[in-house]
Design a protein that fits this description.
The protein is of the alpha/beta class. It contains 14 helices and six strands. The protein is elongated, with a radius of gyration of 21 Å. InterPro entries: Cro/C1-type_HTH, DUF5753, Lambda_DNA-bd_dom_sf.
């Protein structure tokens, strides 16, 4: 697995170069961004509909074949619907919900599911400066926007949500990409919009475990790194943010060889949260939602948290590193 620096952080810029100019500057982008993020994204609406449908089907005791027969759909189609890969037309969904309700009265909240489904096929979110995101990364951005909890492990660079503007620009330079001024601004705007999730209304709880190398690796200059680490420390003081450093000499460093994100999205009713793990290689990203996969990464996360410095010691560690860069 390659680091996010190789794929996510740089690929945004490569996409920006292909799409060209779409916006003017970044000076006024923050206004209104936090409020916009309070609206559920179409992708997550579709995932939640599938998650709820699977829960209700399992409560009724039906398998995918049985459920498909209720509305004239195949096992494969029903599987795609429950995984959020496709959506049923509203009238077909209503028919399915009515059939489920007959089998298990009181288990289903039809209005909740139908309301989620109405916005699940909206388009246009990825136009303008947002078009810089690779298609495989867009679902991660949506999950990030709608999650109630985010857990991220990062190996080699400071995560995108914690980067300062000058650090972001230096990353673009380090990648040695020839970009127009507008392409750079589009990529920067997209990154800054993601960061607004940390301070929006009903902001998620966001926890980071960062390898020591991610704050030691010089991006741009030593002065820039000192400023970046001070920026990191200020974000770590937010009530909903926790940052821990995994030092080089950690006594029990787990076998975490690649970056990963664990997203937890609240679900209506008693279906339990929607959970996804996002991992990637050099050219693609994978979304894992099988219980066994999520459980394995949850255990790995717990091991990383246990091996890392606690938040208070991590804050001191970051401050010392910033002072060293400033000398």
């Amino acid at each position: 697995m390659q680091s996010h620096f190789t794929v996510i952080e740089v690929d945004v810029v490569m996409q920006a170069n292909r799409h060209g100019a779409t916006r003017k500057g970044v000076s006024s982008k923050i206004k209104g961004r936090c409020d916009a993020l309070d609206m559920p994204t179409p992708t997550v609406r579709r995932l939640l509909v599938g998650h709820l449908l699977r829960h209700v089907r399992e409560e009724t005791g039906l398998d995918l074949d049985d459920a498909g027969k209720l509305i004239g759909k195949t096992n494969s189609t029903m599987s795609r619907v429950e995984r959020g890969h496709t959506a049923l037309p509203q009238h077909v969904l209503q028919k399915l919900l009515a059939a489920y309700e007959e089998s298990a009265p009181g288990v289903i909240d039809r209005d909740e599911i139908l309301d989620l489904a109405r916005g699940s096929q909206d388009r246009g979110r990825w136009s303008g400066y947002r078009s810089v995101y690779s298609k495989y990364f867009r679902m991660a951005v949506d999950l990030e926007a709608d999650a109630s909890a985010i857990f991220q492990y990062q190996n080699e660079i400071v995560p995108g949500l914690l980067q300062s503007e000058e650090y972001i620009r230096a990353l673009f330079t380090t990648a040695q990409l020839q970009l127009s001024d507008q392409s750079t601004e589009d990529a920067l705007e997209a990154r800054l919009e993601r960061q607004a999730v940390l301070t929006k209304r009903n902001a998620p709880h966001v926890s980071f475990v960062l390898s020591e190398s991610s704050i030691r690796r010089v991006i741009g200059s030593r002065e820039l790194m000192a400023n970046q680490l001070r920026h990191l420390a200020s974000i770590a003081r937010l009530r909903n943010v926790q940052v821990q450093i995994l030092p080089f000499d950690a006594a029990t460093a787990p076998r975490a060889t690649h970056d990963f994100n664990l997203f937890r999205v609240p679900s209506p009713g008693n279906a339990g949260p929607l959970e996804f793990v996002y991992v990637e290689d050099f050219t693609d990203g994978r979304y894992l939602d099988r219980h066994d996969d999520v459980h394995a990464y949850t255990l790995l996360w717990q091991q990383l948290v246990a091996a890392a410095l606690d938040p208070v010691e991590s804050e001191k560690f970051i401050a010392r590193a910033a002072d060293e860069f400033a000398r």
